[in-house]
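FIELD: query
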Amino acid sequence: MTVDRVPLKQEAVEIYAARLDIPPIETYRLAMMLSPDESDRAGRCAFERDWRRFVVARGRLRELLAARLDTCPEKIEFSYGKRGKPMLAPPFSRGGLHFNVAHSGELAVYALSHEGEVGVDVEVLRTLPDADDIAARFFSRVEHASYRALDPCHKRTGFFNCWTRKEAFLKALGDGLHHPLDAFDVSLAPGEPARLLRLPGSPGEDDDWRLTSFIPAPGYVGALAIKTASPARPAAVTASWSALALP
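FIELD: result
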């Protein structure tokens, strides 16, 4: 398997990206790795395109995890949090490996870490006719003001910066959209570092989190959130791209 890797400055987190539009013979090879419940979920997809994307995304996840757990991809077992977040089931969870996956269009991104809970999100940069209405409804007051202040040519990027950062944080929490989107603030202006500006809870809670944005492929934007056991580590994380061949 060949995937693209984002090696982070701090090696506690690895980010990978994989194309989902692959040849049918490779798709069916990955389909053979899936568990019965994953195959059932794939079978409920209404369109072949959605079936293929699900199969490839989960199959690549199994390959990435298997390379770190020294096992066969088809042997890995998952459990799920109360909101459906997947995690490794025993005995595979004993090593403390955390992961998260997201996909949009024909791209999947994966985050793996031994440091703490991770959340990742990715979106195709596209024009949304109702972006302003969505921002007014779901962004926090501070985020909405920042979004409205952007030059029109930067609004699309600002919108998806905000959306992916919020999604990545909620996925790291394991709450998904059950947690109010306007209960916390993230930075969104293009060119500014990704940061959590406000979190509900006790003062200093935001020191436990790191947030970063990355570009996994042209026309996409991604975000990563990780809860760290070392608050003193820098919140800003830089990334660069390289190719990595895995078994």
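FIELD: remark
The longest helix spans residues 48-69.
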